[in-house]
Amino acid sequence: MPAQPFNLGELKFPKKGDAVAYLNVMLHKYDVGDKVNSEDSKILVAALGRHPEGEEKIGCGVESFSVRTADFGTKCFWINRTDGSTEKFAHRACVYGKVRPA
Amino acid sequence: MSLDDLTSWLLKEGINVEVDALTRRTVRTELDNLVEDPEGDAAPIDWSRLLFAGSILARSKERAHQEAALRIATGAVTLGNSQPVNDAGAVLLGKLSNFRAVALANDRNLLEYDLEGRLGLALRMEVQRRQIEQSVLVESSGRWIQVNDFQQRFWENANSHSWLSASAPTASGKTFLVLQWLIDHMRSESTKVAVYLAPTRALVSEIESNLAALLGKAGDMEVSSLPLREKYGAATAGGKKLILVFTQERLHLLANVLGKDVNVDLLIVDEAHKIGDNQRGVILQDAIERVERANSALKVVFISPATQNPEELLADAPVDAKVAAVDSDSPTVIQNLIIAQQAPRKPQLWDLSLRHGEALLPIGRLSLASTPGGVSKKIAFIAAAVGERGGTLVYANKAGQAEEIAALISQLIPPMGGQDEELSELADLARKGVHPNFALASLVEKGVAFHYGNMPSLIRLEVERLFRSGKIRFLVCTSTLIEGVNLSCRTIVVRGPRKGVGHPMEPHDFWNLAGRAGRWGDEFQGNIICIDPDDANAWPTGVPVRSRYPIQRESDAVLESRDGIIGYLGQRLDTPLVEIADTGKYEQVGAYLLATYLRLGSISHASFAKRHSPQTIAELDGRLGAIAGQIEIGPDIAERHPGVSALGLQQLLDALRAYEKDIENLMPAKVESQDSYDRFVTIMRRINENLFPAFQPDGIIPLHALIVVQWLQGYSLAAMIRKNIDYHKKYNKPYKLPQLIRDTMELVEQIARFRAPKYLSAYMDILYLHLREIGREDLIEDDLDIGTQLEFGVSSVTLLSLMELGLSRMTAVTLYEKIARDDLTKESCRAWVAERNAQFEGMDIPAIIVREIREKLLPLAEGDEASSPSQ
Can you give the pTM of this predicted structure? Predict the structure, then answer.
């Protein structure tokens, strides 16, 4: 099966793997504790739109994104909601549509 | 025959046999569970001959002669079976200016009433003359206090000199007298602010509470251990005078807060020989010099235990300062060094002999309840047997071993009759303040305890208090005690003592420990029991011969290494720190030299230069000049962070300047915020990479960051331990509770309260410098300095107010759990407590905590007066 192109907002990727790689690079550009800048945040908003649990994750609304510690010493993106609550999400799920890798 | 010849002859030949017999008898009375020796104990003593010899020996200045005189006097008072012999013993004690021993003999009813009335006219006049001569006037109260020779010389010289260095063995009544003098000096002179420096937080809390007790609740001056501006400002503006009790690090924190305003009138440096300690000695030296730079008229008093050269500390006094060294080597209590060796083929029997001079004097045979297998059992069984009557201190090499030995002793000693309320209260505090299964709790109920440096101060101080009062009969401790806790005992039991991790104790450290045997005024004798003296593993160089500390500044020792420090500075510029050997030895002094160079333009202008060869100084100047060429930050910022290299500070600044992302990411987040933990993780990494590898290995950073956040959030130690246990359970990690408790305490003390504040406050200073450079002053917050927040484990106004009122952190945190608001001032905290005073008993707060709350926060009750602290 030929690779299917994948879009995140205005960004277009020839295949899903490229989108994941792009988000990986973005993630690792940040240190844990950093706020995500506004340009990258736009892409993350688009990515969240494609997350299978996107609506619940967004909840009352996104105030900003951070990079913080995930389990087992790794790091991931976190949504900071407008009500002060926070939740992490897996950027792979935004691309592959699965909450956990199969 | 001169007096010297006579006294020497007396000891060697004249009365040596009698003194040996007397010694054997007096020492035997000190030790429990000896196999009986009816014949030896009944041999008659020729008291008049011995007392006559004793009165001659008392006139000699030599320690051995004075010791013999003291032994004769003590023997006559305690063993003499007639009133004239007891009286003569008391007069001899008086000749030795040992007034506390006379008072003790009276307390124990060893002397009949009205000794003076029984003396002949000439002797009575002599006694009275001596009493007048051997006392000092407390000017502020007009009261006379009786002192010994050392104390008298201290008092006179401290009043008449601006730099004084005093040295005397442990149990000479140094601390008691210095505190008396300090208060008197504050009251009668124009001194507004005094700083009392002590090397450990343990000693800081002890001195602070002793001062508070001496001053009483209605104190006419403030005592504080918090490096904050408020009380200092009030004192310098003519308000209540202020005594600050600090470690050297806290003095730097205060100086950082005050900047150019810092002006201390009087500085007392306790345990001043620790200016030679690796890594922290130079921080102490730097603190003294920093305060002196700010006030050239500073008055300084150094105090050290038996040192060889107290005058060394005066070498850097200003040229016009009047200096004096006061030195004493006189014994105040008899100290028996006893060695314990297993009787051949009989592991339950141990032969005890007293070492005096080169010789060994057999004392008797100790009988143990069981056969000891292993080192801990050996120490525990011997201690439990020989020191059964209590006041027994046991030295353990590690905190874990201290717990183990204490548990063994608790099984061997006779049970106490019934429950003691104070011991039960301490057990309750240990259960609620640390963990329900913290071993200390069930041990103290049996009158046994352990003690180490990382314990919360409220618990440690209560352990010490109950040991002094006799309710805790056995105390097993680690090297915290030689790091300067003023705790004396009747008997010390020790086998192969180490200091820190694995290093055999130096003779002067051993004798600083051994010197704690014998509570002057509470006991006539102290005993040091050394187990297995011939075991080369335990005692690689044998049981040390009595010796005194040589004082040498850490900086001077490093400079004397010459090639070592020159080579280090040469490498430091372009070699990553992790690749340089001996960072531990050279980094702190290197930082000090560099800061000095930045301030003066050449270290040849510094006071220490005169102690080293001009070539060494010139070569160092060359190396320092090369480094300074790379440094833009000024001397002021380097001065604020002693022990942190200006080169590291510059490298951190360079890294911040090169940071391309959002500048706000460099800021720590408020501890309540969700980003806080992660921000600390990244900041600690940044510190490791650019400033100094302080949080190593890298994998430990998340744990260190977590501890820092919990500590700043005001978590209690008990809560931190609970969280740690939950974490282990969640991830199925095995753990041992006692170890986990000790590890958590260590992380709090060593990371959250020591390393993190040192490096995080340097980070913040450099970050703020950078923010000003790029015009982002808007990000700079005028909060409490992160170093101070960490040292005290507070981030809310209420918690800080509670600690400013003098509460220990454990009490402050417990109380804060009940207080809803986080913004209470000191007055509001007082009001909150006053309103609820009647309800504390129903709040499930440990009684010791309630007591501290009431002592520190409630207004003065009628009839409350100053009490005597422990001496």
Answer: 0.91
